[in-house]
Amino acid sequence: MNDVEQAILAEVARIPRGRVTTYGAVAARAGLPRRARLVGRVLSSLPESSRVPWHRVIAAGGRIAFPVGTAPHEQQCRRLRCEGVETRNGRVDLQRYGWQGTRGDLDRWLWRVGDEN
DNA sequence: CAAATGACGGGGT
DNA sequence: AACCCCGCCATTT
Question: Does residue A41 approach strand C to less than 7 Å at its CB?
């Protein structure tokens, strides 16, 4: 595994339980702007045994990347539901569950923790 | 080597 | 909101 994949997985692992973020956002935070597709490719190559929370990564606009009705789609919805994230018609409300990862994040705002610059 | 293919994104209709 | 189209780029045909 190279450093690029490492950076991407590190960002995915940073997403808090019960929150979600997009492929594009992960790429940007990993220092790879406009490389959303790469994020998807890396996640698709994860072994079943991986503990990386891949289900917290969704497509732009809160859409679940897998086609509605497919097994992987159902699995992702199930995993999200387990941590309190509700999915409606294959989508997640980003206004409510979206995680930006930096300034403006609800958690940091509430607890005043992390890098405040 | 050319063309198709994605766990994508954004802009236009 | 739902498509379509095009940019993106590592892999696979």
Answer: yes
> pLDDT digits over A22-50, tens only?
999 999 999 999 999 999 999 999 999 99
**Where do we find the tokens 């690029």?**
A4
Separation between Cα atoms, residue A28 and residue A103, nearest integer Å: 15
As a whole number of angstroms, the distance between CA A32 and CA A12 comes to 13
Q: For residue range A78-104, what is the model confidence (pLDDT) as tens digits?
A: 999 999 999 999 999 999 999 988 655
Is the CB of A35 within 7 Å of strand C?
yes
Q: Across-strand partners of A102?
A: none
The whole-number Å distance from A40's CA to B4's C1' is 18
Residue with tokens 């509430």: A110
CB A12 within 8 A of CB A92: no
